Every structure is written in C-alpha cells, then in structure tokens.
C-alpha cells in the first residue's frame, strides 16, 4: 500500500465527511420541512451529495492509484460529523421555528462553506506545486534558499 501524507489524508477525510454529513443534513432538513417543494429540494440536494461522493471516490482512486481510498483511513477517522455540518445543525436547532426559509439559508451556507473548503484545499495544492516547480528548476544550485517573499502567500 502506498504511503500518503497526513495532509492528503486530512483532505480526503474532510471531503468525505462533508459529503456524507451534507447528505444527512439535507435529509434532516427535508424531514422537518413542511412545504412539499422544500422537501423535494432538500431530497434533491441530498442525492447530489451522493453523486459528489461517487465522484470523490473515483478522483481519490486516480490520485492514490487505488480504487479503494478507504484503506488509507481507519473507520474511526470517518466517524462523527464534519465541523461545518455540526455548526449548521446547531444553527438549525436555534432557528427551528422560523420555517423553510431559514432551512434554505442554512443549506446555502453549507454549500458556501463546502466551496470555501475546496477552494482552500485547491489553493494549498497549487502553492505546493509552485514550490515543487521552483525547487525543481533551481535544483542545480549548490545551495537552495527559498525566497521569503513567497511565504506571505500562506496564512497559517
């Protein structure tokens, strides 16, 4: 089995938890929503999360060179809820009496948080590729010094 970095494991775990728990969240929203159109919309969004999970399974298989990404994570690492979903469930409990509009707002927030999660992941991967290309193009130098001006691009 190939060894993968903790960063890659965390990215896989975050993506999977986001989709699995997003599906649970949208199904829960469909259950508590009284309006039939709202129920249909939330069920549709839940099914979209399943499609995303299938896409990630294929993508992770290509990246890791293995069809089964699960062997890279222990089962307990995939337990629990994604922090974004936990936060939105708490908000939904607080806003319970406010109806479908609030549920839609919470669902939209979940999707925006997911977009931000993947944007940050994408940015970090692009930055890593940039660093590797920089190192590769300067590998003939006897002494490698990383230009500190690039460090301001990452806020950790």
UniProtKB/TrEMBL annotation:
Lineage: unclassified sequences, metagenomes, ecological metagenomes
Bilayer-spanning residue ranges: 117-136
Domain Rubrerythrin diiron-binding per the UniProt entry, residue ranges: 12-119
One family name in Pfam for this protein: Rubrerythrin
Name by which UniProt lists this protein: Rubrerythrin diiron-binding domain-containing protein
GO-annotated molecular function: metal ion binding; oxidoreductase activity
Listed InterPro entries: Ferritin-like, Ferritin-like_SF, Rr_diiron-bd_dom
SUPFAM superfamilies: Ferritin-like
Keyword field: Membrane, Transmembrane, Transmembrane helix
């Amino acid at each position: 089995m190939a060894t993968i970095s903790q960063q890659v494991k965390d990215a896989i775990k975050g993506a999977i938890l986001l989709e699995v728990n997003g599906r649970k969240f949208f199904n829960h929203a469909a259950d508590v929503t009284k309006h039939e159109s709202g129920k249909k919309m939330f069920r549709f969004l839940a099914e979209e999360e399943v499609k995303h999970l299938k896409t990630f399974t294929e993508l992770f298989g290509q990246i890791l060179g293995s069809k089964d990404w699960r062997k890279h994570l222990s089962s307990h690492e995939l337990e629990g809820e994604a922090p974004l979903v936990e936060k939105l469930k708490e908000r939904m409990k607080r806003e319970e009496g406010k109806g479908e509009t609030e549920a839609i707002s919470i669902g939209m927030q979940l999707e925006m948080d997911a977009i931000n999660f993947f944007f940050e992941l994408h940015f970090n991967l692009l930055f890593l590729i940039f660093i590797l290309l920089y190192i590769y193009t300067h590998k003939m130098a006897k002494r490698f010094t990383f230009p500190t001006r690039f460090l301001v691009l990452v806020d950790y």
